[in-house]
Amino acid sequence: xxxxxxxxxxxxxxxxxxxxxxxxxxxxxxxxxxxIGSPGSPGTGSGPGAQPEWVDCIQASDMCNQNAYCSSRxxxxxxxxxxxxxxxxxxxxxxxxAALEVLLVSPLYDCRCKRGMKxxxxxxxxxxxxxxxxxEDGDMDDSSPYEPVxxxxxxxxxxxxxxxx
Length: 165
Fold this sequence. Notes:
Elements: H1 2-21, H2 29-36, E1 55-56, H3 57-65, H4 68-80, H5 86-92, H6 94-104, E2 111-112, H7 120-131, H8 155-164
Parallel strand pairs: 1-2
């Protein structure tokens, strides 16, 4: 978990450095490369078949709120998603698009929630603030807001099945 936190801090620093040298016209090469190869994103890990490490959305929100730049973009994104004209805001508003671009490479993009956690509702709100901006025509993407759970074997169920037969 510490390596993810350290990476996120370096990541945010690089984004701020990159942002100061570029404009909002197009995504920068650094932003795109970080978005594609960031740790914790699906498909990354330490080896073949490795499970990615997910950051809790509550922790990701706290990390974002500690950074003034990320925090301001997160507030903008929440405002963009409020109201009936959400699609028009996201498609036509440059500020909304810029906020979404920044948040795509933030810890919030790859965060997940745990079922039954204390602040599950807040965690889900944080998750959908980012992911609702990514959906097109109201279609939900196939990703789940919940942390992947490794399949577990129910030894008692197998034992009961053999007893009942």
